[in-house]
Design brief:
It is built from eight helices and no strands. The chain is mainly alpha-helical and 184 residues long. α2 crosses α4, α3 packs antiparallel against α7 and α6 packs antiparallel against α7. It comes from Dentiscutata heterogama. This is 615_t:CDS:1.
Amino acid sequence: DGFNTIASVAVLFGKKQLGLSLKDLLIAAVITPICAFIGVYIFLKIQQYFNLRTKTMIIITASLYSLIPIYGLIGFVAPFGFKNLWEVWMFAVYFGFSLGAIQSFCRVLFGSIVPRGHENELFSLYEITDKGSSWLGPLVTGLISDTTHDLRYSYWFLLVMMTIPIAIIFTVDVQKGKDDAENF
């Protein structure tokens, strides 16, 4: 939800706070998936080069993703932090670069702990929970924006939405999950 909410907030923030035109938003919308495609392969090469586990890659990419709301929060006190048009392009590249990798690694880890023969059931549940709760982030950021009259405050919520899953993933025992899937 944090990843999807960042995208939603970015569009609203760009339109409301930075006054982006539809053309600018469309260009960012094209840049993001192109960079996601590239990011998947670059992060895969990093994983292979350093021989890192998928769980480690999720923690790395999610941590890099957490820098996005931090950067937005810097805008409260600095002359940058999503205040300029060039930052939109930087964000589109960075967001896309990280998005493809985090989605890929999450699905790989999930797939590795799914019992054989139950892939359809559990990946269906994965998608339902992924998309079924996608309303929560935009709802909360909308409430924050309505209450504070500044969408920038929603970066606090986004930061929490990004850091809690990182803490949770640290507790996941992947090998036990694989063993339990085999024994199921």
